Every structure is written in C-alpha cells, then in structure tokens.
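FORM 12-B: Structure-to-Sequence Request
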C-alpha cells in the first residue's frame, strides 16, 4: 500500500507526525510525505519537522503565501503531477488549512481515495476560511477520522455515510503527550524572567481577529489591562506582526505584553504548560490547554471543538474587551482546573488510524480495497 501524506502548515505537522511515524512501522506500507510549502519560515516549518521527528519531505511544492485562490490553485497544479507519478492508493490530509482542501480535491479528481484526519469539526461560521475547507474536504473524503463525538453528528447531518466515519481520537494530543516531558524540561519561561503560574500567553492569527483594526484594538486593550496583573507573552504570527505594524500598535501598556517571534513546538508547549492562563484564537491550542489543564480564553464567538468547553478548560469569550476581562477574571478567581482528558485523547489515535487502514485493506471497508486494487 502506498500512502501520500500531504502537509502544509504548522498545525498539520503536529497532527501528521504520529501518523507518519506509526504507518512507517508497517513494512507493507510505503509512506511519501509532501510539503506544500504553505508555511515556509524556519520557525513555522523546518523547526517543527526537526522537533516532531518528521522525516524530510519527499517533495516540497514551495507554494508559499498568496491569496486563498492563488494558494489553493497553485497546490492543485503542483500536486497533480506528483500524484500521477506516485500513483498512491490513498492520500491523507490533516486539519482544515488551504493545503488540506487543495490536496483532497486534487486526489479525488484523479480517482485516488482520500483519508481526512480531524474530520467533522464545525464552527457553523462560514466566514471562516477553515470552515469551508472542512466542509469541502469531508465531502470528498472516503475515510473520515474524527477527534470528538460532535464530529460524527455533524458529518451524518451533511449526508456522509456512517461506515466511512471512524472515531479515533486526537493525533495532535498524541504529539503533545509524546513530547510533553521534553518540552516541560526546557522551562522556557525562565528566559523571560517569568514565574510558574504567574504569567499569561497570547496567540492571534486569524483574519477575523487581526485584519480589522477595531477588533484587534479591543483584544489588545483587554490583554494590556490583564497585563497590569501579570505579564503576557505573545509569540507573534508573521501575519499579526504585519498588522501590528500597519495599525501602529504603540499602546502605552504594551510594556506588559511581551511580543516575541513565533516559538518552536517544544518551546511553545513549555511556555503554555506553566502559564496561569492562555488567550488565543487558535483551534489546536484550545485542545492542548484542555489536556494540559491550563485555563483557555478563546477570542472568538464560536468553537468547532465543543468538547474543550464541555469537558475541558475552554471558555468562549469573543473579541469584546468587557467580556474578555470578565471571563479572565472568573478564571483568575477560580482554583486551577484539573487536567481532563476527553474520550480517546490518550496518545493512541495514530495507532487507531493505522488499525482502521489495515482493516480497510483486509476487509474492503468503504470499498477502498476494491477501488484501489489493494487486493
Ligand atoms: C494558516 C491556516 C490556519 C492555521 C494557521 C496556523 C489557512 C486558510 N489558514 O493560517 O487555519 O490555523 O495556518 O498557523 O490555511 N507567513 C510567513 N511565513 C510563513 C507562513 C506565512 O511570513 O512561513 C505570512 C505571510 O505573510 C502569509 C501570512 O503569514 O501571507 C498568512 O499565511 P497563510 O499560510 O496564508 O495563513 P495563516 O494565517 O498562517
């Protein structure tokens, strides 16, 4: 069996690493790794490959940045000859970034089966580019691996047949549990003179949070206010740094908000694991804070990961200053929550993925074996 795994952006690397590692242990499986090049800065890409133990990509499509159409279209054009030459039985895609939908579409148009890791998450907010990527990817996928129970319900509602859906758990959590001890031993907070449990961490990168000066201004005003109580470290995504420059963010309290370069995977986990609070618009960080037992304030009006709210440490606060401060105050007045682990977030999701694929091979689940000639 030949499987092409396609990755492109930071969170893809974290989700794919345990799957690639597990699949490679099976001598009857050949795994090829394609990097679209959506993320290309060393600290957004190469460093993640090194720290997660991902092998060097067999192919790099070097698509770089661009508008959504440009990025998606370039991946389609550059991936097609690779898939034609490799003739894989299956293409695996991860998460919800532009590289995910582009690779899935490219494969299905060539008649190649698609497996999607992290299927079925829905924010029900179609203004999010990721929501469109999720819906389209799931519609063309043959095997849909889910991370939490809500995902199956969403997929069934969208007409996906139940037998294609496999609740395997969360491969991002596999990576977290594998690397947690190594990350924590780094004690990255000490580089910034911070005490354990006495600082916050902020991340922001979504267009909805950073492209509008009023929204970004409200978030930063709230964070600056919190910064009066304790320092906030802000590893800054390149897109956000550009917006800070454009909007000329020179708020007086910015001294309490330490804007730094994006961190490597291990460094970021280390910083988060010892924080008192995390504020973010990221999806994956909502899941990681749940497992780490660190309170998370999500700076969005919705989440596609409801299990982090019902079972984890996540509070949905939106982007308005009063609400952010009110939620943060609730967190800071409450005892530190115990880490809780949603069902199947146990470090074994990639093993379940591999198991499902080998059963698909042997038992013709979803018609995969016949269609791709695996028998
Ligand atoms: C992408 C994903 C988002 C994911 C995020 C993780 C889409 C639509 N968005 O957002 O879901 O949460 O990755 O980080 O796929 N840039 C650099 N260096 C890089 C990469 C990007 O400087 O290595 C800058 C460029 O100016 C680029 C901008 O960041 O235009 C945005 O990058 P892009 O990959 O389009 O989206 P992200 O915001 O990173």
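FORM 12-B RESPONSE
SEQUENCE OUT:
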């Amino acid at each position: 069996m030949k499987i092409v795994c396609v990755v492109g952006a930071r969170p893809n690397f974290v989700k794919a690493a345990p799957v690639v590692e597990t699949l490679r242990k099976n001598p009857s499986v050949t795994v090829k790794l394609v990097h679209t090049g959506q993320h290309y800065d060393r600290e957004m890409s190469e460093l993640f490959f090194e720290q997660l133990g991902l092998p060097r990509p067999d192919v790099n499509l070097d698509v770089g940045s661009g508008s959504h159409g440009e990025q998606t279209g370039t991946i389609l054009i550059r991936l097609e000859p690779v898939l034609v030459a490799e003739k894989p039985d299956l293409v695996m895609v991860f998460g919800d970034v532009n590289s995910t939908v582009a690779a899935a579409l490219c494969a299905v148009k060539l008649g190649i089966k698609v497996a999607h890791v992290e299927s079925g998450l829905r924010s029900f907010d179609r203004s999010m580019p990721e929501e469109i990527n999720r819906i389209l990817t799931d519609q063309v996928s043959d095997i849909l691996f889910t991370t939490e129970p809500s995902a199956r319900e969403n997929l069934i509602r969208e007409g996906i047949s139940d037998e294609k859906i496999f609740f395997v758990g969360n491969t991002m959590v596999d990576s977290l549990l594998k690397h947690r001890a190594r990350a924590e031993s780094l004690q990255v907070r000490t580089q910034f003179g911070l005490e354990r449990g006495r600082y916050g961490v902020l991340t922001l990168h979504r267009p909805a949070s950073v492209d509008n000066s009023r929204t970004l201004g409200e978030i930063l005003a709230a964070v600056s206010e919190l910064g009066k109580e304790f320092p906030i470290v802000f590893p800054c995504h390149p897109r956000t740094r550009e917006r800070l420059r454009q909007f000329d963010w020179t708020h007086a309290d910015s001294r309490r908000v330490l804007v730094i370069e994006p961190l490597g995977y291990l460094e970021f986990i280390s910083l988060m694991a010892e924080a008192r609070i995390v504020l973010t618009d990221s999806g994956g960080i909502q899941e990681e804070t749940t497992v780490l037992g660190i309170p998370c304030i999500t700076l969005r009006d919705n989440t596609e990961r409801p299990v982090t709210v019902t079972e984890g440490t996540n509070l949905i606060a939106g982007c308005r200053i009063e609400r952010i401060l009110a939620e943060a105050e609730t967190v800071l007045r409450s005892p530190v929550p115990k880490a809780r682990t949603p069902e199947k977030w146990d470090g074994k999701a990639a093993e379940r993925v591999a198991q499902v694929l080998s059963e698909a091979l042997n038992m013709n689940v979803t018609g995969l074996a016949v269609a791709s000639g695996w028998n």
